[in-house]
Write a structure and sequence with these properties.
Elements lengths: L2 E4 L12 E5 L15 E6 L19 H7 L4 E3 L5 E3 L2 E8 L7 E7 L14 H13 L12 H9 L5 H9 L3 E5 L2 E6 L6 H7 L8 H4 L4 H9 L12 E6 L4 E6 L9 E6 L4 H4 L3 E5 L14 E4 L2 E7 L8 H10 L2 H5 L36 H11 L6 E6 L7 H14 L4 E6 L2 H4 L13 E7 L6 H4 L19 H15 L3 H18 L3 E5 L2 E6 L3 E2 L2 E2 L5 E2 L4 E2 L7
Parallel strand pairs: 3-12, 16-17, 16-18
Antiparallel strand pairs: 1-17, 2-3, 2-13, 4-5, 6-7, 7-9, 8-9, 10-11, 11-12, 13-20, 14-20, 15-18, 15-19, 21-24, 22-23
Helix pairs in contact: 3-4, 9-11, 15-16
Length: 562
């Protein structure tokens, strides 16, 4: 564990992903050095640890760029973030007569689709094999909507591991290859977000089942992670040429994709100097210190994401009244202003682009916490706070978010209402946030964390706060678990709701529980991604979900001015 105490404003943010697109230029090449090139590289801070999308943990962010470059799912997302057909040309949805009803999706696969060898057809069996392999591997947790998943989870957690029990549980999950072109799935209850989840989470992608048949586990591992001879077969805009496991994954375009690109490489990140000397065509500004003086031609992509302050609700140092004081003491815009070029202060947990989000002037927003220093001081007095120092844990490192700078702004704002805070930075926030002292009390009653959407639906923001989520607040134990039961009932109702206004009402009530009734979190702001891109490179950007999008990437010739 690496922790440091901070008492002054520092800008040392943390990063999950840095992406730089490097063109095949050479220094000293003159004016043409910045012109169109047909061999490009994307530099990542962390390289992938596997190319096997069915066995990769969806929380392993370094794997997402290559997975999305080489694979596709049953659905994809349009420019509004809504699911549309992809490998499935259409689907039917029906409800069972169970109480509560289950939901059956029957996907009709697009005919004529072949894997990257141009001859192996895509079949329903490929999805059956792929999803079952994901249930057996690290990605099983992301398939939790499936009927039969609970038995798989129980078998996964059993110790000692019982492979026969796990195999039997997986075989009973409600997945069916009806025929070569029809794949049927039954989920536990209506989920309006299910088609969106299928689009982006790579554990829902198919596997080349014909190639994997009769291979041992070791042979399958080599098939994916020692690419050769056009294998593994893929379905995306690119397929894998080679992977040296040290710093480069080399991709080549699939037929009919990536116009103007002959080769695409994923390589280890260097620095912004690559862009400055025309060695790079796309550079993501993932070091927030670079944003204090924004470079010319910088572009911005708003994210469906929220940065928030978490409070350990069972900490003796944080009674409800003091949590309410903190909720009203923070001026969200002022906490970030001056640290990034543009600030989108967060009123609620949901970013405004997410269907079902509310704004401060919405009648449903009445009572949700807003900045009110006078009320914050009154709540501090009501809480019986005696001036003890509260430790605020924040991630250190390099990031597109100025995390320590924001923490210092929050510290000053809390000091202004009489709450004393000490900032502690760590390189291992996910671990350290759960640390307790000898008395069982949390070492860090306050901490900062980000949540990003996996799809354009409110549900993706709330699952973190359900049992087994990674919110770390401990709020699931409040009121003997009754609060959590009420919260989960709201999420179940919201997930099934097709009327937008009713959906908004339901999820607003869930937000009210987190932000006001139990004062579990304080939303701070909605982050953006900033980047530089050459004019001749089109279609490569960050999606609102913080993924690099390769599918429409093209190199366009630059026409000289007359």
């Amino acid at each position: 564990m690496k922790r440091n105490v901070v008492s002054a404003s520092l800008a040392i943010p943390v990063s999950l992903l840095v992406a730089t697109l490097v063109c095949g230029c050479h220094r000293g090449a003159g004016a043409n050095a910045c012109g169109p090139k047909h061999e490009v590289s994307i530099a990542l801070v962390n390289m992938p640890n596997t190319l096997d999308w069915s066995r990769s943990n969806p929380d392993s962010w370094p794997n997402y760029p290559v997975m999305h470059a080489i694979m596709r799912g049953l659905t994809t997302l349009d420019e509004r973030g809504q699911p549309v057909p992809d490998l499935a040309e259409r689907w039917d949805v029906e409800l069972t007569k169970d109480k509560p009803p289950r939901q059956i999706y029957t996907f009709h696969l697009r005919k004529g689709v072949t894997w990257s060898d141009g001859k192996t057809p895509l079949t329903a069996q490929d999805f059956l094999v792929g999803w079952r392999r994901a249930l057996e591997g690290n990605g099983y947790g992301d398939l939790d909507d499936l009927v039969g998943y609970d038995e798989v989870e129980a078998a996964q957690k059993a110790r000692p591991r019982d492979q026969a029990r796990l195999d039997q549980a997986i075989s009973k999950v409600a997945l069916e290859a009806v025929d070569a072109n029809t794949f049927r799935v039954t989920i536990k209850s209506p989920r309006t977000y299910f088609l969106s989840r299928v689009a982006l989470v790579y554990n829902y992608f198919p596997d080349p089942s014909a190639d994997l048949a009769k291979k041992s586990e070791d042979e399958i591992d080599r098939y994916f992670n020692e690419p050769t001879g056009g294998k593994p077969l893929t379905l995306g805009a690119f397929h894998v040429a080679s992977w040296d496991h040290l710093g480069s994954v080399h991709l080549v375009p699939s037929a009919g994709t990536a116009d103007g690109i002959d080769k695409l490489s994923l390589t280890k990140q260097e620095s912004k100097i690559q862009y400055d000397r025309c060695d790079v065509a796309f550079y993501a500004l993932d070091d927030a210190s670079l944003l204090r003086t924004p470079p010319p031609q910088m572009q911005r992509q708003p994210l469906m994401s929220t940065y928030w302050l978490g409070m350990k609700v069972q900490s003796a140092a944080l009674p409800l009244a003091l949590r309410h004081a903190i909720s009203h003491a923070i001026d969200r815009e002022a906490a970030v202003k001056g640290l990034v070029p543009s600030v989108r202060p967060a009123f609620g947990l949901l970013p405004p682009e997410v269907p079902g989000a509310i704004t401060a002037d919405d009648p449903l927003a009445k009572g949700l916490p807003i900045y009110d220093a006078a009320r914050a001081r009154a709540e501090v007095e009501k809480s019986g706070y005696k001036g003890q120092i509260l430790k605020l844990l924040v991630a250190s490192g390099t990031s597109f978010m100025p995390e320590v700078g924001i923490a210092d702004s929050i510290r000053h704002q809390l000091e202004a209402v009489g709450i004393h805070v000490q900032i502690v930075t760590t390189a291992e926030l996910s671990h350290d946030v759960n640390l307790t002292g000898p008395d069982g009390e949390p070492l860090y009653p306050l901490y900062l964390k980000r949540i990003g959407a996996d799809f354009a639906h409110p549900q993706t923001f709330f699952t973190m706060f359900e049992p087994g989520g990674h919110d770390a607040t401990g709020w699931e134990h409040l009121d003997g678990g009754k609060a959590m039961a009420r919260f989960e009932a709201l999420l179940t109702r919201g997930a099934a709701e097709t009327d937008l206004e009713k959906m908004k009402e339901t999820y607003t009530e869930a937000q009210r529980m987190l932000l006001d009734e139990f004062a579990v979190i304080v939303p701070i702001y909605h982050p953006d991604r900033y980047f530089l891109r050459r004019p001749w490179l089109t279609g490569l950007t960050f999606s609102p979900f913080n993924f690099l999008s390769f599918r429409t990437m093209r190199v366009q010739p630059v026409v000289a001015a007359p």
